[in-house]
Specification:
By secondary structure, the chain is an alpha+beta fold. It folds into two domains: 167 residues, Beta-Lactamase (2-Layer Sandwich); 151 residues, Heat Shock Protein 90 (2-Layer Sandwich). The chain contains eleven helices and twelve strands. The strands form three sheets. The chain has a five-stranded antiparallel sheet, with helices on both faces. Strands 7-9-10-12-11 form a five-stranded mixed sheet. The chain has a two-stranded antiparallel ribbon with strand order 6-8. A hairpin with a 3-residue loop joins strand 11 and strand 12. Helix 7 packs parallel to helix 11. The mean pLDDT is 90. Bound molecules: adenosine-5'-diphosphate (ADP) and magnesium ion. Adenosine-5'-diphosphate binds next to helix 9 and helix 11.
Length: 394
């Protein structure tokens, strides 16, 4: 290999990486990366698999010269495949003859009718985090060399940063929402401090104003913390700690915590567990957060002298838990939105305090446990929120 050629390739890569860094739309970015990867290594094809940290799965997200077939995007690439190996070992892999390598995953070759001879697979890593795998297949008229592998590694490192940036960019919509929501409490605090400066304010009003500041700062704090947790969960950066525990006693614990609030609202909570113990394996403190959120809502959006009924039981290998309240209910049209970040039903928005984050966090937690959460509700009659969790003993 001539030095001049090496130099040209590197300059070329540098220009490409500038272009990648400024592409924020994930799909166009991935398509650019696979084109470039195929070009610089003179490969017949290239593809990208992205790694889902939450599910610990690798899936195809882009390939050259074609729209990715849904048959393939839904396929989870096995851990002992070539890509899976590169991901697990976080190191590159060059396989000159795939049909002699037991790791070769031929489902894709079959699905696409693309006879594969050789593969280079590169892990894309940034800040120690695996983003995905970049693969090139079959060198045109020749076989891949060590030099192709090095070029691809350089591209892979740039691509990892660009993909990470585009993920962050996608989140900036969520951040815009947060900033919007922070405005209201911030402006009320600002107004209050202005009023507190006025000498003519009587002590009684002064105290009320100070209480409101306290209340609003608590709400701000709650919103920011919960929002960050939510985004961390969405991007798989909040880890879950599984343990084995009795679900029924967790429910009791939550009832005790919320008993004062329920009493204050004159609401009776009736617990109907099916058995004495119900052992499950899950992240206890996160499931506790879900139960507290749902119970808190069932109290908040209830009428005085209302009731709340809890049911928990095992069906097959699933736990089902439901909370039924006799409260204000949710208008049918708004039901599809209530699990969205910051969404609050119009009927309660100005009546009852809240942030609209509790249900989105609860859904995220349950889905992280491979469970599901839902609601049945009728306006003015009441609501039933329920979730299902796989039991997964030990
Ligand atoms: N038990 C319930 N009864 C009636 N409406 C409910 C109930 N739980 C939730 N909601 C509706 O869903 C919205 C979102 O709930 P949530 O995410 O917990 O936020 P928050 O309670 O802070 O408003 C609430 O604002 C309310 O409109
Ligand atoms: Mg709530």
């Amino acid at each position: 290999m001539k030095n001049e050629q090496r130099y040209n390739d590197l300059v070329n890569l540098l220009e490409i990486s500038r272009d990648l860094a400024s592409t924020l739309d994930l799909n166009s970015l991935l398509n650019k990366i696979v084109q470039v990867a195929a070009n610089i290594t003179e490969a017949e094809a290239a593809s990208i698999l992205l790694y889902d940290h939450k599910k610990n799965e690798l899936k195809f997200k882009a390939a050259t010269n074609q729209e990715i077939d849904p048959k393939i995007t839904e396929m989870v690439v096995p851990k002992d495949s070539i890509a899976g190996w590169a991901a697990q070992h976080q190191s590159s892999l060059f396989v000159p003859d795939v049909h002699k390598d037991p790791r070769f995953f031929d489902q894709v070759e079959k699905a696409l009718d693309f006879p594969t001879r050789s593969i280079i697979a590169i892990p894309m890593i940034t800040k120690g985090r695996l983003i995905g795998i970049l693969e090139v297949l079959n060198k045109k008229h020749d076989s891949f060399t060590q030099y192709d592998l090095e070029l691809l590694e350089t591209l892979g490192a740039q691509a990892a940063v660009a993909i990470e940036n585009s993920h962050l960019f996608e989140q900036s919509d969520a951040i815009a929402d947060l900033v919007h929501e922070l405005r209201t409490p911030l402006s009320s605090i600002k107004t209050i401090t202005y009023l507190l400066n006025k000498p003519e304010i009587i002590p009684e009003d002064r105290q009320k104003l100070i209480d409101t500041i306290q209340n609003e700062t608590n709400r701000l704090n709650y919103m920011v913390t919960n929002f960050l947790d939510l985004v961390r969960m969405e991007t798989g950066r909040l880890s879950f700690e599984y343990s084995t525990f009795d679900f029924n006693s967790l429910v009791n614990e939550c009832m005790l915590i919320l008993l004062p609030l329920a009493t204050q609202h004159k609401i009776k909570i009736i617990d109907q567990p099916e058995s004495e113990q119900l052992i499950i394996n899950a992240d206890r403190s996160k499931i506790k957060q879900v139960i507290l959120n749902l119970l808190n809502n069932a109290i908040k959006y209830n009428h005085p002298d209302g009731t709340i009924t809890l049911q928990h039981e095992i069906k097959k290998d699933k736990l089902t838990f439901s909370i039924t309240d006799s409260g204000v209910g949710i208008p049918e049209k708004e039901i599809p939105f209530i699990f969205n970040k910051f969404y609050r039903a119009s009927s309660v928005e100005n009546e009852i305090q809240g942030t609209g984050l509790g249900l989105s966090i609860s859904r995220q937690i349950i889905e992280n446990h491979q469970g599901s959460i839902g609601v049945k509700s009728q306006k003015d009659k009441g609501s039933t929120f329920f979730f299902e969790l796989p039991i997964k003993k030990n």
